[in-house]
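Many introductory courses stop at the sequence. We go one step further.
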Amino acid sequence: MMKLKRTIAALVALAIIAACAASLALTGDVDGDGAIGVKDAVLLCRAIADGGAGANDMLSMDVDADGRLTVADLAYICRAIMDNSVVFPRDAQNAAYSKDVK
């Protein structure tokens, strides 16, 4: 019985850690290397051509937060590659939300 409780506690902890890691995904960082670059743009192009992405990938790919992968998302990523000061609409929405919550 004690072993079962420990196993369940470990699984719950793992699920919480995984959820936190997914929420910390950098918008536009499609390949997950911590930076926005040409590889991210290429991966987004492939996802657009293939007709979509998984739920976890949508967090980093759907930079305009409209629920779809479009050329607009690609344009934002290309602008971010050329100019690091670009603020993605998804990040602006998150910032506005966190101000409302406080």
